[in-house]
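Whether sequence alone determines local backbone shape is best considered at the level of individual chains. The sequence in question and its structure tokens are set out directly beneath this paragraph.

***
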Amino acid sequence: MRISRSSGGAFAGFTTVEVLHRDPLSIDDCALYPLFSADVIRLRRSLNPAHRHDHMAVAIVVRAHLPDDTPTGCRKLVLQP
């Protein structure tokens, strides 16, 4: 999943968004996730130079808070996994 945030603004109504951790992923790491098919992994290996294979993506862990006055129904919708 890709998470983006426009500079200076809140993301999807959150009052704060903190990046807690960033971790580079290699092609081999990406191959462990069902998001990337074997065809995509083969394509990335063939298109990207070998020296880039160790850093193909970044895993990011974030913490975000909704305002206290957010209606309960909206909280459940946003926070469901």
Q: What stands out?
A: The beta strands are 16-25, 57-65. The two ends are 12 Å apart (CA to CA). Residues 19-79 form one domain. The chain has a mean pLDDT of 78.
